[in-house]
Amino acid sequence: MISPPFARSDEWHFRSNFEDKRRASLEASPTFGEIVESILSDVLPGKPIKVAANDDRLPNCWRVKFPFKVSSLTFDRFFNGPSGIRAQFLADSNLGRWANAHLVTMLGPTVVRELERDPLQQFSGPVLSSATDSIAGLSARVWINELSVGWNSRDLAITRWEMAADEPGADSRGLCAPTGSQLVLLGAWINSDGVEMTLPEKIRRHEEISRRGYS
C-alpha cells in the first residue's frame, strides 16, 4: 500500500497551561506513517469480540470489535500529536479517512490472526469471512477506547475546534488530549447478507472530526 503524504498540522497548538514536558514530547512527534509503525510494534492484542448492533436501523447486523493496547507514548502521539490521526482530519477530512484506512489495513493481519485463534469460536466457519469483511469495510476505524479516558480538560488551542466547542449545545471533547494506552479497531457493520451497513449520521464522520475534533 502506497502511503499518501500525511500531514503535520500547523494549526495544532496546546494551551498555555499544558504540561511542558508532555508538550515537548508531542511536538517532537514523528510522521503519521512512523506512528503507525510504532502501533504495529507495540500492539498487545486483546480478545476480538463479535458485537451485535443495538439500533433498529441495523437489523441482524454485527461487527468485529478488536481492543488492543499500545505504549502510553504511542497512544499520545496517535491521538494528541500534530502528526496523529486527529491532525490528519484537521488538515483535510479526506486525508483523515485515508490515514484511518491505512492504519486499519496495516493492522488487518494482526486482527485476522486473533480471529483465527479465537477460543470462543465466535468467528468459525463462514462467520470468519464476514468478520474479515467487517475489518475491511469502508467504515472500519481505529480510535481510542473512549470509555477508558477522561474528557474533562481543555488542552488544545485549535481555533476551528474552539469555535465548534463554543457553539450552543456543543461540548469541548475535541479540545481534550486524554492519556491512556487502549485503542480499539471497530469493524464496519455487516448484515446477514454480508453487506456493509452505515447509519446516515455516520456517513459524514470524517467531516465532523475535521470540524470539531471528535465524532
Number of domains: 1
How would you sum up the global shape?
globular
Low-confidence stretches: none
Quote the average pLDDT.
92
- How many β-strand runs? 7
H and E string: HHEEEHHHHEHEEEH
Distance between the termini: 27 Å
Helix content: 25-40%
Count of helix runs:
8
Structural class: alpha+beta
Provide an overview of this structure.
Helices cover 40% and strands 13% of the residues. The protein is built from 8 helices and 7 strands, in the order ααβββααααβαβββα. It has helices at residues 20-27, 32-42, 72-80, 85-91, 93-116, 126-136, 159-165, 205-212, and strands at residues 44-45, 49-52, 62-69, 141-144, 182-186, 189-190, 196-197. Strands 1, 2, 3, 4 and 5 form a 5-stranded antiparallel sheet that branches. The protein has a two-stranded antiparallel sheet with strand order 6-7. A hairpin with a 5-residue loop joins strand 6 and strand 7. Helix 2 runs antiparallel to helix 3 (72-80) and helix 5 crosses helix 8 (205-212). The two termini are 27 Å apart.
